[in-house]
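Hi L.,

You mentioned the student needs an example of a multi-chain input paired with its predicted structure. This one should do, with 1054 residues in total across all chains.
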Amino acid sequence: MVEDKAGENKSSKSALKKEAKKAEKAAKKAEHKQSNAENQPAATPEVDVSIGKYGNLPVITSEKKDVERKFTYVLDLNKTLSGQTVWVRARLHTSRARGKQCFIVLRQREYTVQALLNVSEAVSKPMVKFSSSIPKESIVDVEARVSEVPNSIASCSQQDVELIVSQLWVVSQSAAQLPLQLEDASRPEKPEDEGLNIRVNQDTRLDNRILDLRTPTNQAIYRLEAGVCRLFRDVLTKKGFVEIHTPKIISAASEGGANVFTVSYFKGSAYLAQSPQLYKQMAIAADFDKVFTVGAVFRAEDSNTHRHLTEFVGLDLEMAFNFHYHEVMLTIGNLFTEMFKGLRDEYKNEISIINQQYPAEPFTFLDPPLVLEYDEGRKMLAEAGVEVGAEEDLSTPAEKLLGRLVKAKFDTDFYILDKFPLAVRPFYTMPDPNNPKYSNSYDMFMRGEEILSGAQRIHDPVLLTERAKHHEIDISKIAAYIDAFKYGCPPHAGGGIGLERVVMLYLGLDNIRKTSMFPRDPKRVTP
Amino acid sequence: MVEDKAGENKSSKSALKKEAKKAEKAAKKAEHKQSNAENQPAATPEVDVSIGKYGNLPVITSEKKDVERKFTYVLDLNKTLSGQTVWVRARLHTSRARGKQCFIVLRQREYTVQALLNVSEAVSKPMVKFSSSIPKESIVDVEARVSEVPNSIASCSQQDVELIVSQLWVVSQSAAQLPLQLEDASRPEKPEDEGLNIRVNQDTRLDNRILDLRTPTNQAIYRLEAGVCRLFRDVLTKKGFVEIHTPKIISAASEGGANVFTVSYFKGSAYLAQSPQLYKQMAIAADFDKVFTVGAVFRAEDSNTHRHLTEFVGLDLEMAFNFHYHEVMLTIGNLFTEMFKGLRDEYKNEISIINQQYPAEPFTFLDPPLVLEYDEGRKMLAEAGVEVGAEEDLSTPAEKLLGRLVKAKFDTDFYILDKFPLAVRPFYTMPDPNNPKYSNSYDMFMRGEEILSGAQRIHDPVLLTERAKHHEIDISKIAAYIDAFKYGCPPHAGGGIGLERVVMLYLGLDNIRKTSMFPRDPKRVTP
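Structure written out for the whole complex:
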C-alpha cells in the first residue's frame, strides 16, 4: 500500500512537472496574446521569481487533449492528503491581502477551503498582488500543498487543512462588480438578527439567478429536487408503472377553459395543457395499466402567492384498479413514504446544509401513512372552533390548522384526507356509492398544505355524461373526453403532485420560488 | 413446499367460493338495476342453470373493499397451472360462436389466450349466447379452469393452454362498432402481401389512438420508450449528473426567433422554448457541473416529414470539462453505448414483438463507439461519388448514404461525426483552435439519421460577442445570453437528443408518429 502510494506520488509529481512546463508555455502565450489585458502581471524592473506560476490563462478552446493534470475535489481535501501537492479548479470565493500574505477562500459547489499565498523564495510579491486582485467568482486553477492547521477554520467547510499555493491561474474571470454577494445570499435567515445583516431579496436573487444558484443552499436544494424526481420514478417503476409523455399543446382547454394560456399554432390557435389528466386516462383506456409522467404543467392564474407558479413540474400518475380506489390511494401513500425515506437517508448532507440557512423542523411521517376521512377532519376542526360545512371545501387557513392539529395528535407532517364532498370536486369524480354526498376522492398534505389532489375517475361514459349534465357542462364540448371511455375502460384512479411544492414543504421553506430553478409567475418570465 | 401449495389452493378455493357468492349477489343486483339493458340474459321459460354465473356487472364504484378475488395475468397462464381454477380480467379480443360452443380470445396488453364455453351441465345455452354477443374490446372477468391443449394454439401468445370458462362477467362494455379492428392494426407490414390484407392508415390510427395503442406492438413500443428515458437518466445519474427542469415559457425566442410559437401571457406575450440550451448553460455557469433535463421542446416548423414533430421530448445534457470537449463527447458516446446495451438486454421481448409487425435488422453498435472526423466522412462520400464542400453541411441524402457506407465498413448503426465546419454551426459554437475553418462540434447518428447535435459552447463573453458580431447578430438582443458568462464560467459542452427519433431509429421504424404517443405536427393537435 505504502509503495503504491509512493508510486502514485512519483508519477503525479512528474505529471505535475510536465504540467508546470505546459502551464508556463501557456502563460507566456497568454502574456503575448493579452499583453494589454487587465490583471496581467505588470513588467517589473526586478526579476519576478514566480513568472510562469500565475496569470490569466487563455480561453480554453480544447487546444490540447493530453493534459495529464488531475484535479482534486474541494470536498476531498482533508488531513489524509496533508503534505501532498494537488491541483484544484474552483471559484475564488473571497480574497483578502494582508501585508505579504493573501488569504483566499476557494469554493466548489457546497464546499470551501482556505488557500494562502506568502511572499517567499518561490512566491513573488507581484504574484501575491495578482492573487489579491482576482475578481471574486472567477474560476481559478491552483497548485498547492495541503497543510494541516492547528486550529480548525470555522469559516470553511474543510476545517482541518489549508492550501499553500504554488501556482495560481485564472481560467475564467468574473466581472469585478457583482450584483449580489454570495456571502450575503448565503447568510442564515434567523429572525433574531433581522435587520443587522445584509439580505438579498427574492427579486434580486432571481434577476441574478446564475449567481444566486451558486450558494451552498441552492446547490443542495436542486440536488435534493433531482432526488425527489428520481425517487418518484424509481419507486413507481419498481411497482410496474410505465412512464409516458403527454402533449403540452392541446386543441381544447382541458379543465373548463378558465386559466389557460393560448398559443398561436400556424394559422390557428391552441392551448397549453393545465394537466396531463386526459392523456393519463387515455393511456389507461389503452391498456397501459399503471402510468406516470413528469413534465411541465401550465396555469394562467393571476395568483401572486408564495405557492403558485404559472409553470411547474407535475409528477402525475394514474392506475387501473380491480375493485376499490383505495388500491390506488394506498399505492400513492406508499410512494410518498418511500420518497420520504429516500430523502431522509440519501440527502442528510443536503438537508443539513439547507437547514443552516433556512432552519426547519425535520419532516415527520408515519409508515403506513395516516388516512383521515374528511368528516373526521371536519370534527377535529370543529373541536378547535372552526366549522366547515359537510358539503364545503377546506379553506387554506382551515387546511393549515388541520395540519397543525394532525401533527399535534399523530406526529406526522404527511397525511391523506379521504372522501371529499362530491359537491367540491370536478364532474369526472366518482361519487361515493355508499353516501351520495361524498366522493371517492382524496387530497394529500405536507406540513398542512395540499400537495396532491386525486380521485377515482368515472370510467363509464353513461355515468360520466350524467354527471357532466348535473354540472351543467356542455356535453358537445367534452365529447372527445367522454369518447375515451367508449371502447371499454378499467376502473382507475390517480393524482397529480407539484414537484416544487413537495420540495418546498419537505424542507419547510416559505416560498415556491426557492424550489423552482427559473420560476414563472404572472410578473416573471425571465431569466 | 407441497403442503404450502395445497394450503394455498385450499384457501384460494374457499376465497373463490366466497367470490362466486358475492358475484351472484352482484349479478342479481345488476339484473335488477339494468333489467332493460342490452345483452342482459333474457328471461327464458326454461330454467337457466348458469344464472348468477354471467352477465353485465354494475359500474365498479368501489362499493366493496374486501374482495378477495385474485386475478392471474394472461402472461402467466401456462401448463404449470393446468387443472387449476383462475380468475382473469382481460379484454375480449375476439369471439366466435360455433354451434353449442363459443371461442373467445382474451387479450391483456401483449398477451392473448383462448377461452372456451361449451353448453354443458354447468354452462347454459343462454350463457353461451350471451358470451358470443359481448362487443369486442369489452373488459371481462372470467372464471375458468386452465386446460392443456394437445396442439399448440398458433393464434395466441399463450399456446399451450386454453381456459374452460365457468363464469363470465362484463366489467366495462365497449361500443359495438369499432372505428378500427385491432387485428387489422396489428397485422405485420410485409411488402410481399401489400394490398392483400386490410391495413389501418396512420391518420385512422391517430384519430382513434386509444384503440391503436392497444396493439401488442404499441404496448411494446411505449414500454421500450420508457426504457430509453430510464436508461438515459440512470446512466447519467451514475456519472454524477444532476437533473434540472428548465422553463418552457420564455421571454425571448431562443434561437434567432424563427420557428417559435407565441403564447399570450397575461397582458403581454411570450414564447415556447425551442431548446433548453440557455438554461442548461446557466446551470453550468451556476456550478452544477453536469446536468441533464428531459422535457417538451417546441418547433414551429411547417415540416410535414416522417421525422419532424412540432412538440417532442428532448433528452438534453450539458457538462463542464477540464481541458478538451472530447471529455464530454465521449461521455455522451458512452451514454449511448450503455443505453443500447440496456435496450438489447432488458427489452428482448418488446423488440421481438415489434419486429413481428415491423421487421428490421437488429441495431448494431461498437463499444467504444466509432468517432469519424467530418473530413473523413467527406472523403468516404467522395469515394462513393458524392462531393460535399469543406464548409458545406451534409444534406439528408448524404447523411443517409454516409450511414450506409459506415455500416458497410465498420458494421455499426451508431457513430459520432466530429469537427463540423464552423460555417454551418450556430454562433455560440467554439471554433477549432487548430483549424479556423472547423469547430469543436459533433453530430451523432443512428441508422444514418442525426439524433444528436452538440458542441463545445463559447464560455467567454468577449469571444462570444465577437462571434455573434461575425454572424451579424444584434448584440442587444442576446445580451442576457452573453451576460450568463460574465461572472466566470467553466468550459463546457453538451447536446440534445430527440427521444422519439432514438426510438424510431433504434427499432428501424419509418415514421416518428409511431413513437410519439400523441404526436403533434402542423396538421394535428388532437387527440
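You could point out the following to them. The mean pLDDT of chain A is 91. Chain A touches chain B through 107 residues (CB under 8 Å).

Best wishes,
N.
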